[in-house]
Design a protein that fits this description.
Blueprint: E1 4-10, H1 15-26, E2 33-40, H2 46-54, E3 58-60, H3 69-82, E4 87-90, H4 99-104, E5 109-113, H5 128-136, E6 141-148, E7 158-165, H6 172-198
Parallel strand pairs: 1-2, 1-4, 2-3, 4-5
Antiparallel strand pairs: 5-6, 6-7
Bound molecules: 5-O-phosphono-beta-D-ribofuranosylamine.
Length: about 200
Amino acid sequence: MEKMRIAVMVSGGGSNLQSILDASRTGNLKDLAEVVLVASNKRDAFALERAKKAGVDALTLEPKSFTSRAGFYAALIEEFEKRNVGLVCLAGFLLKVEPNLVQRYRGRILNIHPALLPKYGGPGMYGHHVHEAVLRAGETESGCTVHVVDEEFDHGPVLLQRKAPVLPGDDAQTLAARVLKEEHRLYPEAIEIFIRKQLPPETRS
Ligand code: GRF
């Protein structure tokens, strides 16, 4: 069976990218997927180092080099098509995805969000803002979500979630770290579920 060809889009540290790379080498995605491209919108993203170390093709495209956001995404689509990408994973990619990318890869773009969507998602809800909002609301649990990307921020159908407790004395940092640990298990699991759904029933194990 041919492996699913994944492009991972990043803006930062790339610890979720790392969990996907690890899973595709030695973990649950070993026979199911390979990362064929890491695309960053930031030149200095540490995720690029991780890609390099793993021997995976990496590139930086900056929106400011294009006259429009649609143009930026059109260039990305071109890179994906060149490599026959079947699944796009957003992993700490901070820009809103434009409709041209969503339309070209409809149902085949996943995103990870550090909260239990539909709560604490949407514009402005990223990084420490998410965890601060969870703490402010006095929640006793939080978690993370992998969902299919549509035209709205943090909005498409939920594929999988994992929970993490909010503990007394938590601040945004301690909560973020606990949630991030769950994210690293969640994303490879969600990708496996996504891929198996695409397979004919007789080849599913
Ligand atoms: C994660 O918390 C992810 O849920 C969010 O951005 C963060 C990225 O972390 N979308 P990393 O770059 O994968 O370490």
